[in-house]
Amino acid sequence: MNMNSGHSNGVNGVKKGNGTANTSRPMLKEQEQPESGSSHTTNGHAATRPLHSRKESNPLAPPFIVSAPGKTIVYGEHAVVHGKAAIAAAISLRSYLLCTTLSKSKRAVTLRFSDIGLEHTWHIADLPWRAFQHPSKRKRYYDLITSLNEELVAAMQPHIATVSPAAKAEKRKIHQAAASAFLYLFLSLGSESSSACIYALRSTVPVGVGLGSSASVSVCLATALLLQCRALSGPHPDQQSREAEEQLERINRWAFVGELLIHGNPSGVDNTVATNGHAVLFQRRDYSKPPSVSILRDFPELPLLLVDTCQAKSTAAEVAKVGQLKTTHPDVTEHVFDAIDAITRSAHDVVTGEDPASRESITRLGELMTVNHGLLTSLGVSHPRLERLRYLVDQAGVGWTKLTGAGGGGCAITLLRPHIAADDEAAPEGTCSASAPLLALQKRLEAEGFARYETTLGGDGVGVLYPAVINGVEIDQEGFLDAEGREGVEALVGGRYDREAWKYWRP
Ligand SMILES: Nc1ncnc2c1ncn2[C@@H]1O[C@H](COP(=O)(O)OP(=O)(O)O)[C@@H](O)[C@H]1O
Ligand SMILES: C[C@@](O)(CCOP(=O)(O)O)CC(=O)O
Fold it and tell me: What is the pTM of this model?
């Protein structure tokens, strides 16, 4: 699938509105991969074009969407930045990036990230291609990049400074972080002859609450740009496991670069789980090498309550705070990291053991969460709102609580005690819960300004909807950007009614 040239294996006959469409979705086959940034020529694809594919004269690839999940870190945040193990699971909240290629004459790329109110256009020719393509700086799509090149970041700065310059400082920071992630990836993977395109983003992952919104956005950006420079094969259903694994690894490497731009010193656990889905045991001892990643496909469906303190936090600030503590008290901090590492490994033994959903296993997992939270507090990354939340849950006696993600506000997870979870499950559909203590707690939390997210753990990682057609209807950019809330977005892009439409790399 050449997503940029008129020789695309794309689809025609797609109707706007309520019409029917040819929804065959030819995905990339493994083929000769171009050098990153090479011009978009065909490589014998026309011969394999299906009967109803786009006409040679049509210069545009059809709009397509990529999607990636948010995550919750169950054990090991912060320690993971310093080389220890962490367990994280994908959640059913996701980001979606709709890519609409424009005719060659347009020569501009536009970001429309409506959740955060960002709209920005760059003229492709104005961008600092010379710096990014200098032989000493040029990166290939298969390279492992573990740190940003300061000269390239500096070359990009004038083009980032023009993003939302009049916005309030906090908003500008959010806009410029997202724009930086895009632009660094675009300049690294694209070329001056890249197609003009509009990148429209919607996310059901709340921004900056510890659920990996930046990673899910970075995975979407990396995947879209890799697809557009033809550096990915698939996803297609008959793809060999090793090949699918390689594609996910490629996406993950570039998503990590996006994370470097957004939050400075990432461990890589967030983008790894957003790429692969399910749950992962993750460790990165040496930042110059790929991390050790074990995918936990049989991670139990833990009865978790996910609560937002609604207290804003900054991952970069919390990570820097722990870094500072490590500099001041290296031995003490290392011991705390080691203890967190031991917690993660004990939890891993339980979830990969005989009966991870048994009463005993849940109790062990819960106790480990309590200790993990205590250690995070000792690192200075809790917050009065998180402590209040933990106190309320402890008082209600419904489960074990820890902060998740960077802390300093953001979210906490509570593992429900088995009898509470059982009552909750037995509740008639549509009711909140049959468990009186849980119901009382939920009311209390609401009254004190906490928010609860309904989500399930595990599920697929990065997915592609090519073309952007659900049930024969092409997803319209304006409708996508204006869709109301989580329900609106999911109703529009949801594979719920067209299960075959979304494709995933499944090793
Ligand atoms: N829906 C979105 N649209 C655009 N950018 C987003 C979106 N969600 C997150 N981001 C980017 O990710 C950043 C949040 O990252 P971070 O502070 O690490 O929080 P989180 O814990 O959610 O990952 C934002 O500043 C923004 O740049
Ligand atoms: C604190 C940390 O371990 C997790 C941060 O997660 P989040 O950005 O709060 O979703 C940092 C990292 O692993 O990169």
Answer: 0.87
